[in-house]
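step: validate -> pass
step: tokenize input -> pass
step: predict -> running
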Amino acid sequence: MEQDPQSKPVLEVCAFTIQTCLIAERVGAARVELCDNPIEGGTTPSYGAIRRVRERISIQLYPIIRPRALNYLYDEDEWAIMQEDVRICRELGCDGISVGMQLRNGELDTDRMKRLVELAYPMGVTCNRIFDNVPDPFRTLEQLIDMGCERVLTSGQAASAPEGADLLAKLVEAAAGRIIIMPGAGVKSGNIAELRKQTGAMEFHTSARKAMPNLVEHANPAILDSGNFFVADEEELSRIIALLHA
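step: predict -> pass
step: emit ->
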């Protein structure tokens, strides 16, 4: 698909901390996808986190709406939680949400997704990586266009976006400007230029995260559930931005 020569490439940063959100704005990213629980692939952040991030950054803010890990098949209680979380994001002045829902057979839950798009308005809606689990990506792409989603976050149904570059290019062509195809997963400074060339995409998604050292001087070696604190690597994000805008 031909891109508008006047259009500017966009970087979205997957942020698990407010510190990463501040870094993302500082280096020139256009948007953050705010999540909790990096080990589980990202779940809905807290009300307090969304509110504080909205107060602290002026770039676009898209919290993920995902009540738990494992899959995107939700029961009635989880569905009620998701609707309330969308309302909260709208009330807090978010620019959009990232969300995905599926049926037991793996296909997109078009009824509930459409209802969330309507509930989210005037916020935008990104279909998250549920897209990489659907049996027919081209059929799903048309469904997302019909319901008014503005963007699809996808690795091209591969383990990483570079591995899925062929399908990503076909999706960009099939989208024909009707919806944004945003490659994500494994996007780094070492592959961003080639990925842009291979796919024709103009928006990209990365976390560029690194684990931070524990600054607390005393630790009990018997306690093993402290986990990790992930923050974006500012130098790596700056390199990606520079290569996108070269």
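step: describe -> The chain has eight helices and ten strands.
step: cleanup -> pass
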